[in-house]
Amino acid sequence: MTGRIRDVLEMAPYGQGKRCYYRMPEQVFHSILITSEWLVFHETTAGPFDPTRTAFPDWAPDGSDAAAVQDYVAKTSVLAAEHLAGR
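RE: above sequence
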């Protein structure tokens, strides 16, 4: 896996013409780019939570360096916008 964007799903509140929910297939690396002032996020998964079953991609920062995370999010935002523009 390379970390390339395969798809971008635009979401919005119900009634605004975009997805208001999404059921994600298992074993898909994903990220959320929040572009609104508010976000309600509800995730469900089979429990109990076992952190040893969580896989983190090697192309993303591990979260220990705030500047690296900010840079990653900024770059991902640009790539997502380019992906949407190329549809």
